[in-house]
Write a structure and sequence with these properties.
This protein has about 170 residues and is of the alpha+beta class. It has helices at about 5-50, 80-90, 95-105, 115-125, 140-150; strands at about 55-60, 65-75, 105-110, 135, 160-170.
């Protein structure tokens, strides 16, 4: 490469590093602002309204503040099987009905770990999809957990639930 092309390349690399640094700074600022917003919405505003026994209020500005109970639910990858079976057990005595209800919540894919070459060839020759994995949409899991808690039932082992209050300003 010519010397002026190398110099141009060095300048472009320097510009890229500067832009990358600026992006990191802005991402850190955004993360900090989101943390502040969450602290206000989930802790400070609900705490103030709870202190006065309120769950909603309309301000003179016309804004309405509503504090709602909310939750986040998740299942760690290593706990999917445990959670799945415990959800079936938690649904009651009729195992077939319980299993059908829980199955309807999950998407299923087949995964074969370390299959033999013969098995893989057989699956490929017959166009069989061979990944199998249980997964549940986060909103479906949230609704399932919320329904159980509202009905006074426990959350099956393997599911992590975080309950909180959150202010919504309209």
């Amino acid at each position: 490469m010519e010397e002026n092309a190398l110099k141009e390349l060095e300048n472009l690399i320097l510009d890229k590093r500067k832009v990358s640094f600026e992006i990191e700074k802005v991402e850190d600022q955004l993360k900090s602002l989101k943390t502040q917003e969450e602290h206000l919405a989930r802790e400070l505003i609900p705490s103030l309204l709870n202190r006065y026994g309120l769950s909603e209020i309309r301000l003179s500005s016309g804004e309405k503040v509503i504090v709602k109970d909310n939750l986040k639910a998740s299942i760690a990858d290593k706990n999917y099987s445990l959670a799945y079976h415990n959800m079936i057990d938690a649904e009651g005595d009729d195992k077939d009905q319980a299993e059908n209800k829980v199955k309807s919540l999950f998407k299923v894919q087949t995964v074969i770990e370390d299959p033999s070459p013969e098995v893989l060839n057989l699956l490929m020759e017959n166009s069989v999809v061979y990944d199998m994995k249980h997964s549940i949409h986060p909103q479906t899991l949230k609704k399932y957990c919320k329904d159980r808690l509202e009905n006074g039932k426990t959350i099956p082992e393997g599911i992590s639930v975080y309950q909180y209050q959150e202010a919504d300003i309209k």
